[in-house]
Amino acid sequence: MGPKRELKFALESFWDQKSSAEDLQKVAAGLRSSIWKQMADAGIKYIPSNTFSYYDQVLDATAMLGAVPPRYGWNGGEIGFDTYFSMARGNASVPAMEMTKWFDTNYHFIVPELGPDVKFSYASHKAVDEYKEAKALGVNTVPVLIGPVSYLLLSKPAKGVEKSFSLLSLLPKIIPIYKEVISELKAAGASWIQFDEPTLVLDLEAHQLQAFGAAYADLESTLSGLNVLIETYFADLTSDAYKTLIELKGVTAYGVDLIRGTKTIDLIKSNFPKGKFLFAGVVDGRNIWANDLASSLSTLQALEAVVGKENLVVSTSCSLLHTAVDLVNETKLDDEIKSWLAFAAQKVVEVNALAKALAGQTDEAFFASNAAAQASRKSSPRVNNEAVQKAAAALKGSDHRRATNVSARLDAQQKKLNLPILPTTTIGSFPQTLELRRVRREFKANKISEDDYVKAIKEEIKKVVDLQEELDIDVLVHGEPERNDMVEYFGEQLSGFAFTVNGWVQSYGSRCVKPPIIYGDVSRPKPMTVFWSSTAQSMTKRPMKGMLTGPVTILNWSFVRNDQPRFETCYQIALAIKDEVEDLEKAGINVIQIDEAALREGLPLRKSEHAFYLKWAVHSFRITNVGVKDTTQIHTHMCYSNFNDIIHSIIDMDADVITIENSRSDEKLLSVFREGVKYGAGIGPGVYDIHSPRIPSTEEIADRINKMLAVLESNILWVNPDCGLKTRKYAEVKPALNNMVAAAKQLRTQLGSAK
Q1: Nearest 5°: phi and psi at 260?
Q2: CA 260 to chain centroid
Q3: Active site members
Q4: pLDDT digits (tens, 9 = 90+) for 454-492
Q5: What is the model's pTM?
Q6: Fewer CB within 10 Å, N- or C-terminus of the chain?
């Protein structure tokens, strides 16, 4: 099953009250010990601890600092699971904290809510406990903490706190907690400690860079006697950030990402502090391709000449959290593709092999095998499809816009669809029951026939359609019972993709995804969703949405080939989705949703690179639907990112309707419209958070809609949840949707009376 899935099931069992806290802790301890042992056996010298999380590492730091928002009723002491998971997921009486993407990855974190009145205290001893746990097993680890400055820069002002409040002003309040943790780790025998300060790769202002210097100067005396590693990742360091990094007080070592930050090498070569360690991230921690060992060794040898033989440490570019666990678990990948890959376990071996080679102990057979695999991948006919490459190249020269403006299209669509004001819909998926999962699993294992599978899925679709009609939802979905994952489902039916059996990656908490592997040129051999969408439409007279995943999201939620620019792969996917959109329209589907949940996620970390990314990402979306009639309504959906800074690009996508996460992020999306941005297309800011089991009342939802009506015209506003419902139970979904529809009807009545 793998450690990520094992944790998922342990968490869900605990949340469902089927197992105890002790049971969950026992599973977690077993997983940690297994990982530590595996790394020790592979010869890794610097083994991290405190990297295991029940939800996410930033929430762990919030717990460590005792920064619990007052609404959770925490009264001090060691933070337990009840408070911890209430912050992450909400509970029956209060909503969860905001969740957003971790930099430009598909990992999520719970955003700290801070203000001048927060009373910080040392409230979670997890970092020290896990260090001691590893030590008792005979493994001396490097405890890892989110650095104090990055923690504050990743936070937000709590509700009621002025937006202009300086979060960095809280540094003097959190540094004493860090000192307590460091002192306990020293007393427990730690010789190294790692602070993750990934915000150093962002575009920072001078006062933000100065905060790093102030923080580590304050920590210097407490850190005395420890080797201190500051780890950065996901991008290059600017020259100012690099200067800040190497001048930090009390710091022994610097970690840099040399996969996504190759330009940092020039900074290192021009000025590296004598006697300091460099943790060189030459093995990609975010993708699954085997390392080009010869190329990496060449890079390392050049760096060795600068920093010194004894001070160069071979490392991954970032945490291996973002990749699958072990290639050994993959029994269905063919040998050729498998030879091109390296999952976390294999990356650990690559790190050790490079370290040995650097020390003059090259494993010639391992390096030769790696070189052969690299050559095989470059020359394989499976990778290149000339027809696809020509079609993608032909896209240049057009921006692929629909001929009619959105206002005229919406008028044409309304005449055809005849929807009420404030139309209601959901985002796509409905709860994935155990029975439904069993049916899909047995069909994949050839334990039931295709006829039996189709019958079971049709019955599930009918149940979902009937429920929506009973609730009086206006635009329906079929619930996606045939799909385990929105990206995996499409990738399985597109050429150029490969799939794993156990390649799970944690997205947050118990949510694991199994990203497809894009190894070659992409095309669509046959229709992918037309049968199910047509089947669902035949069950109702109401509009039924065709449900597709957009090209940018498929790209960003896959392990992408690294032998050509990402935009070229994205254009290929866009053409495949375009074929599907046009087939859905021909089949009589009048509303088609093309989800781009991950468009914002892929935004580069550097502002100088934003325009180019947004140009090709938005263009890719427009390619998918440029050929449809004015009467075909194109929806898109986005969730759990900060969209305010790309709102003009979202408008440029030229979708007819966008549904977008709003409620969990304290409705900050609405601030864009308060500031004067005009949005003429249909828009459905989410009215309730689906990642929490909490059921919102009709009054609460009506209040949210009223806030939207204050900044958006009623004729463009849609009413919908934040995201899909697959992670929820029907006992939560039915009353929540019932209240949502009731709120929409209540507001329709009020709007009608006001005329």
Answers
A1: -95, 0
A2: 18
A3: 691
A4: 999 999 999 999 999 999 999 999 999 998 888 888 989
A5: 0.92
A6: C
